Amino acid sequence: MTLIPTLTETLSRARADLRIGLPVVIGGQLVAAVETLRADRLETMRALGPAVLAITEPRAETLKVRVYDRDLARIAVPGDADLAWLRAVADPAGDLMTPMKGPFRSPRGGDVDPHRAGIALAKSAQLLPAVLVVPLAGPAEGLTQLSPGPALAQMATEAAMAPVAAARLPLLAAENSKLHIFRPDNGEAEHYAVEIGAPSRAAPVLARLHSACFTGDVLGSLKCDCGPQLHAALAAMGQAGEGVLLYLNQEGRGIGLANKMRAYALQNQGFDTVEANHRLGFEDDERDFRIGAGILKKMGFEAVRLMTNNPKKVAMLEGHGIRVAERVPLVTPRNRHNTGYLDVKAAKSGHLL
Ligand SMILES: Nc1nc2c(ncn2[C@@H]2O[C@H](COP(=O)(O)OP(=O)(O)OP(=O)(O)O)[C@@H](O)[C@H]2O)c(=O)[nH]1
Ligand SMILES: [Zn+2]
């Protein structure tokens, strides 16, 4: 029994630090998220040594920055660059109005795991994936400290998840329903499971893995198909008398609502849903599907009849120990606002629509 924080707990602190604008120390480097960095902290950091801005490969592609480190790129921060310059590299909002002017100088060689761990933390904090990295010579009192290798390994490991509470919850679609709450031990968002009826654990259960969409699920946005899919899935389970719907808090395919709104703003400039994610520096889909598989297993389900049009969800579930006995299509009506989005999902993401 010890009071010293575990690596998972330290990572959770580091994520919170980046969100509020505090740098963290990763492998002797001071690392700060560009999105939340304050001007006075930037000054303090720059006084310590040569500053490097680390961005992801998709963002580097947009900015025509050389990528020497596979999934990430480094830019030497010019002497006269201020916070606005850093933000313009990180945030594509102004790319078309005021394009960033290169050429960018890209350092090579050396250990980039601190940069990589910093970007992974920024992503998991749902910030723009861009971090400022400055070498640190002396001690850094009060700052969270991490070793890059173990930090990266831990972040790639499946989060432990525990059931927290459950209660009966009569729904319009099915009066005999129960809501279960699951909490990951890494400080990330809780996820929910709606259990309808009393499905047998011995046969494939009618299931839906639904990713949170505040705009579609709550506001009735016409830009996507999420709201109608959520209600159609619950209605189908109500009609069948049983089923399980996981409501996974992976808003915006895992990038968070703020970044999804940045992506929508880019879509208003003419980019499609996949291009917008890339310009922001994200992959098309940043969701961790092990979470859904883990919750199903925790609830005692081994096989599902999965309501989805996304073949990747089927493959991911099968890859993580849940047998998909059948794929049940979940096609909802098109409208003039979502038809382009649905076409792009079919063309670029392999959705069967
Ligand atoms: N980044 C981003 N996320 C979006 C956009 N439109 C919708 N989303 C998110 O996409 C996710 C859709 O999730 P799902 O409906 O579960 O997944 P799906 O991969 O489309 O697959 P199925 O609906 O099962 O066929 C939600 O988290 C939405 O918030 C967008 O333009 N950009
Ligand atoms: Zn949606």
Automatic annotation (TrEMBL):
The keyword Zinc applies. GTP binds at residues 208-212, 229, 251-253, 273, 308, 313. Its cofactor is Zn(2+). GO terms for molecular function: GTP binding; GTP cyclohydrolase II activity; zinc ion binding. Its EC number is 3.5.4.25. Zn(2+) binds at residues 213, 224, 226. Pfam families: GTP_cyclohydro2 (PF00925). GO terms for cellular component: cytosol. Keywords: GTP-binding, Hydrolase, Metal-binding, Nucleotide-binding, Riboflavin biosynthesis, Zinc. Belongs to the GTP cyclohydrolase II family. Catalyzes the conversion of GTP to 2,5-diamino-6-ribosylamino-4(3H)-pyrimidinone 5'-phosphate (DARP), formate and pyrophosphate. This is GTP cyclohydrolase-2. The lineage of its organism: Bacteria, Pseudomonadati, Pseudomonadota, Alphaproteobacteria, Rhodobacterales. The gene is ribA.
